[in-house]
Amino acid sequence: MAPRPLSPTVWASPQLAPEALPALAAAGVARIISNRPDGEEPGQPTAAMMEAAAREAGMAFAWIPVSGLPGPDQVAAVAELLADGLPTVMFCRSGMRSASAWAMAQRRAGLDADALRDAAAEAGYDLGRVPL
Fold first, then answer.
1. Beta pairing, strands 60-63 & 88-91
2. End-to-end CA distance of the chain
3. Closest CA to 33 of 91, 101, 108
Protein backbone atom coordinates (compact mmCIF):
# COMPACT_ATOMS: atom_id res chain seq x y z
CA MET A 1 0.00 0.00 0.00
CA ALA A 2 1.32 3.44 -0.94
CA PRO A 3 1.70 6.21 1.63
CA ARG A 4 -1.38 8.40 1.88
CA PRO A 5 -1.09 12.22 1.90
CA LEU A 6 -2.00 14.06 5.11
CA SER A 7 -0.57 17.36 3.88
CA PRO A 8 1.56 18.51 0.95
CA THR A 9 4.71 17.31 2.76
CA VAL A 10 3.57 14.49 5.08
CA TRP A 11 2.24 11.02 4.27
CA ALA A 12 1.09 8.21 6.56
CA SER A 13 1.65 4.58 5.74
CA PRO A 14 1.23 1.08 7.06
CA GLN A 15 4.48 -0.80 7.75
CA LEU A 16 7.06 -0.07 5.09
CA ALA A 17 9.52 -2.64 3.80
CA PRO A 18 13.19 -1.64 3.75
CA GLU A 19 13.32 -2.36 0.01
CA ALA A 20 10.56 0.22 -0.61
CA LEU A 21 12.65 3.13 0.66
CA PRO A 22 14.77 3.80 -2.45
CA ALA A 23 11.60 4.40 -4.49
CA LEU A 24 10.30 6.81 -1.85
CA ALA A 25 13.61 8.66 -1.89
CA ALA A 26 13.47 8.82 -5.70
CA ALA A 27 9.96 10.31 -5.39
CA GLY A 28 11.34 13.11 -3.20
CA VAL A 29 10.77 11.84 0.33
CA ALA A 30 13.58 13.15 2.54
CA ARG A 31 12.69 11.59 5.90
CA ILE A 32 11.09 8.50 7.38
CA ILE A 33 9.51 8.54 10.85
CA SER A 34 8.76 5.15 12.36
CA ASN A 35 6.04 5.19 15.00
CA ARG A 36 6.11 1.42 15.37
CA PRO A 37 7.63 -0.20 18.46
CA ASP A 38 10.07 -3.02 17.76
CA GLY A 39 8.69 -6.51 18.31
CA GLU A 40 5.07 -5.54 17.88
CA GLU A 41 4.55 -8.37 15.39
CA PRO A 42 6.73 -11.33 14.43
CA GLY A 43 8.76 -10.69 11.31
CA GLN A 44 8.41 -6.92 11.18
CA PRO A 45 11.59 -5.01 10.30
CA THR A 46 13.27 -3.46 13.33
CA ALA A 47 13.83 0.26 13.69
CA ALA A 48 17.56 -0.36 13.18
CA MET A 49 16.86 -2.15 9.88
CA MET A 50 14.59 0.67 8.72
CA GLU A 51 17.12 3.31 9.74
CA ALA A 52 19.89 1.56 7.81
CA ALA A 53 17.67 1.29 4.72
CA ALA A 54 16.61 4.95 4.98
CA ARG A 55 20.17 6.18 5.35
CA GLU A 56 21.32 3.98 2.46
CA ALA A 57 18.59 5.56 0.35
CA GLY A 58 19.78 9.05 1.37
CA MET A 59 16.95 9.84 3.77
CA ALA A 60 16.88 10.97 7.38
CA PHE A 61 15.26 8.60 9.87
CA ALA A 62 13.61 9.06 13.25
CA TRP A 63 12.16 6.44 15.55
CA ILE A 64 9.33 7.69 17.76
CA PRO A 65 7.57 4.50 18.86
CA VAL A 66 3.92 4.87 19.88
CA SER A 67 1.74 2.36 21.70
CA GLY A 68 -1.89 3.52 21.80
CA LEU A 69 -2.37 7.27 21.48
CA PRO A 70 0.75 9.40 21.12
CA GLY A 71 1.80 11.01 24.40
CA PRO A 72 2.97 14.61 24.89
CA ASP A 73 6.67 13.76 24.44
CA GLN A 74 5.99 11.84 21.23
CA VAL A 75 3.79 14.64 19.87
CA ALA A 76 6.49 17.20 20.71
CA ALA A 77 9.15 15.11 18.94
CA VAL A 78 6.99 14.76 15.82
CA ALA A 79 6.18 18.50 15.86
CA GLU A 80 9.86 19.38 16.11
CA LEU A 81 10.79 17.16 13.18
CA LEU A 82 7.94 18.28 10.92
CA ALA A 83 8.58 21.98 11.56
CA ASP A 84 11.31 22.04 8.91
CA GLY A 85 8.88 21.05 6.14
CA LEU A 86 10.95 18.17 4.76
CA PRO A 87 8.88 15.68 2.75
CA THR A 88 8.21 12.94 5.32
CA VAL A 89 6.57 9.53 5.39
CA MET A 90 5.42 8.42 8.84
CA PHE A 91 4.52 4.77 9.40
CA CYS A 92 3.27 2.28 11.98
CA ARG A 93 1.38 -1.01 11.61
CA SER A 94 -1.65 0.52 9.87
CA GLY A 95 -0.77 4.23 9.64
CA MET A 96 -3.35 5.23 12.27
CA ARG A 97 -0.86 6.05 15.06
CA SER A 98 1.21 8.02 12.57
CA ALA A 99 -1.84 9.98 11.36
CA SER A 100 -2.79 10.64 14.98
CA ALA A 101 0.73 11.82 15.89
CA TRP A 102 0.77 14.11 12.85
CA ALA A 103 -2.64 15.61 13.68
CA MET A 104 -1.79 16.11 17.34
CA ALA A 105 1.49 17.80 16.38
CA GLN A 106 -0.27 20.07 13.89
CA ARG A 107 -2.97 20.92 16.43
CA ARG A 108 -0.25 21.87 18.88
CA ALA A 109 1.00 24.30 16.22
CA GLY A 110 -2.47 25.88 16.11
CA LEU A 111 -4.09 24.24 13.09
CA ASP A 112 -7.85 23.69 13.16
CA ALA A 113 -8.93 20.33 14.63
CA ASP A 114 -11.76 19.83 12.13
CA ALA A 115 -9.47 20.56 9.18
CA LEU A 116 -6.94 18.04 10.53
CA ARG A 117 -9.64 15.39 10.97
CA ASP A 118 -10.86 16.09 7.42
CA ALA A 119 -7.34 15.75 5.98
CA ALA A 120 -6.83 12.47 7.82
CA ALA A 121 -10.25 11.21 6.67
CA GLU A 122 -9.34 11.95 3.05
CA ALA A 123 -6.29 9.73 3.59
CA GLY A 124 -8.47 6.98 5.08
CA TYR A 125 -7.86 7.57 8.78
CA ASP A 126 -10.75 8.29 11.18
CA LEU A 127 -9.48 10.57 13.92
CA GLY A 128 -12.93 11.12 15.43
CA ARG A 129 -11.82 9.69 18.78
CA VAL A 130 -8.41 11.34 18.85
CA PRO A 131 -8.32 14.28 21.28
CA LEU A 132 -7.34 17.25 19.17
1. unpaired
2. 27
3. 91
pLDDT of residue 2: 86
pLDDT digits (tens, 9 = 90+) for 66-91: 999 999 999 999 999 999 999 999 99
CA gap 96, 128 in Å, rounded? 12
Please choose, from the candidates 27, 41, 86, 40, the residue with its C-alpha nearest in 3D space to the C-alpha of residue 61. 86
Strands 10-13 and 4-5: antiparallel
Specify the 3-state DSSP secondary structure of 112: coil
DSSP 75-110: HHHHHHHHTT---EEEE-SSSHHHHHHHHHHHHHTT
Helix (H, G, I), strand (E, B) or coil at 31: strand
Helix orientation angle between 72-82 and 96-108, rounded to the nearest 10 degrees: 80
How would you classify the pairing of strands 31-34 and 60-63?
parallel
What is the overall mean pLDDT for the chain?
A: 96
Q: What is the mean pLDDT of residues 51-55?
A: 98
Average pLDDT on 34-51 reads 96
